[in-house]
Amino acid sequence: MEFALFSHIPWPEQITPRALFSDLLEQAVVGEALGFDAIWLAEHHFTRYGLGASSLVIASNIAARTSTIRLGTAVLIPPLHHPVRLAEDTATLDVLSDGRLDVGFGRGASGTEYGNFGIDHAESQARYRESIEMVETLWTTPDCTFRGNYYSIQRLNLVPTPLQRPHPPVYVAATRSAESLEFVSSTGRRLIIGVVLNTDDALDLLHRFLAQAQASGHVATPSEVPFFRYFYVADTEEQAHRDAREALNWTLDINTWRREFSVGSEVYENLDDYRKRRTELPPSYEYLAEHRAFIGTPDQCAAKIQALYDAGVRYFGCNFAFGGLDQKKQLRSMELFAREVMPRFSDS
Q1: Cis (ω within 30 of 0) for the bond into 83?
Q2: For 103-138, what is each residue's pLDDT tens digit?
Q3: How many domains does the chain have?
Q4: d(CA 267, CA 170)
């Protein structure tokens, strides 16, 4: 079984971006030493929910400080980039990292992000499909000519081309959209399953993807589908919940709050003020801990992962870095996981 790290680089008010980036780099270096196979980074814009606006730049910094851990994007939002620039940047990172890049694409969930880039969110499905196709074509085609509804190029040569052949592995996120699932399953690309779905729903998504891919004539295997969960492990169940509660509640609150904005964002407003005036609550911590997060002792977390394994999951991703959780606690959780949980699946 493969194990990975994931972060959307949350930015609570009391922490500086510089400190968060420093913590992330330490997590990547420690993660590589502990035996994690990859670290995946999310792209978000204009919000404290995540500092991944330039996730490829961040991944490049990680690449310079590591040598074996793979670098994943979960996800890049293609409509917010020109495809030529995206092809150049990903190819360059693949070369710089000695072929360690995994490229995950997705439409993104925030209409505000699209609006601030001057892009109609209603076009997101068509735009992201065309952008992915164009990037892949640029990676592999000399004198590339491409004519789409949104972008056209003529006899363009990408410099450099990716180190991996024919190109880096391509993953596509699909959460609730049947269109997105049809796109990834019918085209032979790989699926990413994020933390935003309940575990039962995420497993159903995995099984539907595998079935639809097979029906479309493609070979899809569970080992190629990263399955991410919020994750925290501690010596006792009480300690695990005590440490994780505030950080996960912050994640739930900021994610709900940021969706209220059609212009601007919550960055320079006060979260406590929002909590006092809101009329709808997000899912409770208890609900998330039961249905979407793996929080507990090594034995409890291992049992949950075993249940996933029995249901077909072969690539498990841990989101240790949620809600500004103290760095020492994150590293302790990573180390406990690597020592007490990962070895149980070494032959899986």
Answers
A1: no
A2: 999 998 778 899 899 999 999 999 999 999 999 999
A3: 1
A4: 32
C-alpha pair distances (Å), 123 with each of 55, 81, 158: 23, 14, 26
Q: What is the helix, strand, coil percentage profile of the chain, to 5?
A: 50, 15, 35
Three-state SS at 56:
helix
- Condensed to tens digits (0 to 9), the pLDDT of residues 269-323 reads 999 999 999 998 999 999 999 999 999 999 999 999 999 999 999 999 999 999 9
Number of Cβ within a 10 Å radius of residue 329: 17
pTM of the full predicted structure? 0.97
Is position 304 within any domain?
yes
Q: Comparing C-alpha atoms, which of 289, 285, 302, 290 is closest to residue 337?
A: 302
Contact criterion met (CB below 8 Å) for 240 and 297:
yes
Which CATH number fits the domain that encloses residue 111? 3.20.20.30
Q: Where are the alpha helices (DSSP H) in 97-123?
A: 111-116
Q: How many angstroms separate the first and last alpha carbons of the chain?
A: 5
146-176 confidence digits (pLDDT tens): 999 999 999 999 999 999 999 999 999 998 7
On whether residue 11 sits in a domain, the answer given is yes
Alpha helices in the chain (DSSP H): 17-34, 55-65, 83-96, 111-116, 124-140, 178-186, 199-215, 237-258, 271-277, 285-291, 298-310, 327-340
Pick from 39, 124, 51, 41: which is nearest to 81 by CA?
124
Please give the biggest Cα pair distance in the chain: 61
Burial 167-200 (b: 16+ CB within 10 A, else e): bbebbbbbbeeeebbebbbebebbbbbbbebebe
Is there a contact between 171 and 102 (Cβ–Cβ < 8 Å)? yes
Query: Which residue type occupies 342?
Result: M
Host domain of residue 227: 2-248+285-345
For residues 317 and 9, the answer to whether their CB atoms sit within 8 Å is no
Give a yes or no: residue 275 inside a domain: no
Residue 254 lies in a domain: no
